[in-house]
């Protein structure tokens, strides 16, 4: 009689979650490069789009694996929420870049660059936290990452509010509308990073 092992499937969940987190870092860095160095814009946004599609692929793989698996390393709902929250981050980064191309905006200013930097830092914190899901012994360390991600989200809120104040000093209402939508997408990306942290925290509380 062949003995079936559930471990490969469990390991696959962790591999995919970490792949999604790594892709999130890559797209955040690509977006930061776009706003810091406003050259070759269509090519850079094309790369961001490719990374967003790669993130979609990983998310689909996680959900498909959920449907095939009888046993999961932690709650199914948490795995699904984690996958979708990380996918939301990549989607919002892509949307922010896409709006810039669609609206034909000028060179991004310091507030855009600062918010982009906070997205990169939050994404890297998520990528550093993800491997700690693999073992109960390391899950407690997730709390430290969650605290830092929450701090970064608060800083992003402050930057967003400051950006809006500065934006409404602009005379060109069309530019106000364009940049407000871009800022909202970027700030929402940091909110979704906080959603990821909340899932991490919940998993740690249930299992650590």
Automatic annotation (TrEMBL):
Domain of life: Bacteria
Pfam families the record matches: PhoU_div
InterPro entries: PhoU-like_sf, Put_Phosphate_transp_reg, UPF0111_domain
Protein family: Belongs to the UPF0111 family.
Protein's name according to its UniProt entry: DUF47 family protein
Organism: Candidatus Dehalogenimonas loeffleri
Classification of source organism: Bacteria, Bacillati, Chloroflexota, Dehalococcoidia, Dehalococcoidales
């Amino acid at each position: 009689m062949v003995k079936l092992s559930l471990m490969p499937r469990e390991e696959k969940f962790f591999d995919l979650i970490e792949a999604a987190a790594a892709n999130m870092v890559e797209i955040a860095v690509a977006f930061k490069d776009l706003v810091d160095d406003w050259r070759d814009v269509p090519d850079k946004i094309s790369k961001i789009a490719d990374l967003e599609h790669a993130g979609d692929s990983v998310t689909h793989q996680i959900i498909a694996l959920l449907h095939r698996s009888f046993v999961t390393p932690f709650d199914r709902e948490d795995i699904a929420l984690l996958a979708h929250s990380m996918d939301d981050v990549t989607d919002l980064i892509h949307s922010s870049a896409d709006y810039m191309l669609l609206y034909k905006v000028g060179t991004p200013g310091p507030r855009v660059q600062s918010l982009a930097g906070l997205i990169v830092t939050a994404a890297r914190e998520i990528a550093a936290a993800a491997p700690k899901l693999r073992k109960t012994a390391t899950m407690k360390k997730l709390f430290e990452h969650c605290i830092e991600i929450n701090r970064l989200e608060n800083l992003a809120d402050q930057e967003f509010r400051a950006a809006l104040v500065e934006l409404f000093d602009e005379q060109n209402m069309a530019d106000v509308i364009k940049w407000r939508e871009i800022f909202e997408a970027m700030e929402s990306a940091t909110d979704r990073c906080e959603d990821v942290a909340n899932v991490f925290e919940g998993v740690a509380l249930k299992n650590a």
